[in-house]
Design a protein that fits this description.
This protein is α/β, with parallel strands linked by helices. It is about 20% helix and about 35% strand. A hairpin with a 5-residue loop joins strand 3 and strand 4 (about 55-60). The longest helix is centred in the N-terminal third of the chain and has 12 residues, at about 15-30. The radius of gyration is 15 Å and the shape is globular.
Length: about 130
């Protein structure tokens, strides 16, 4: 099965991008696609793929050229998945902060929201958006 490359990329900055890489892959379940190391041992640029489609980009706050330097701890993303309960269990076992508990919405989504180690909000849900 081929995967279409994402055409919209949420982007984040982390003080400890290497720790973020570990958290986002091991706890949330993203897959590492590309990691470009910086001269300081941090990550200059990384791309992760969501197994069900899409991706995110991130890098270290030590690489803050341009307007993206002000985006630290200011991000949020919604991730569509058919595996909300499984991800919720993995996030809870990892001890990550769950800021909105697992629940069903009146628009038909099964969802929860967790905070990553640097404060960004990640919502996982079954709602796929309007057709």
């Amino acid at each position: 099965m081929s995967e279409n490359p994402p055409t919209v990329w949420p982007a984040f900055r982390y003080d400890d991008a290497r720790a973020a890489l570990t958290f986002l892959t091991e706890v949330f379940g993203f897959r590492e696609a590309l990691v470009v190391p910086g001269e300081d041992g941090q990550i200059a640029h990384a791309e992760l793929r969501w197994p069900e489609g899409g991706g995110v980009m991130f890098g270290s706050t030590s690489h803050t050229d341009g307007v993206h330097g002000d985006t630290k701890n200011a991000g949020s993303a919604y991730v569509v998945t058919d595996h909300v309960d499984e991800i919720h269990d993995r996030v809870r076992r990892a001890g990550a902060e769950i800021v909105a508990p697992l629940h069903d919405t009146d628009y038909g989504s099964h969802t929860f929201t967790a905070r990553d180690p640097e404060g960004n909000l990640w919502t996982f849900g079954t709602y796929r958006g309007a057709p």
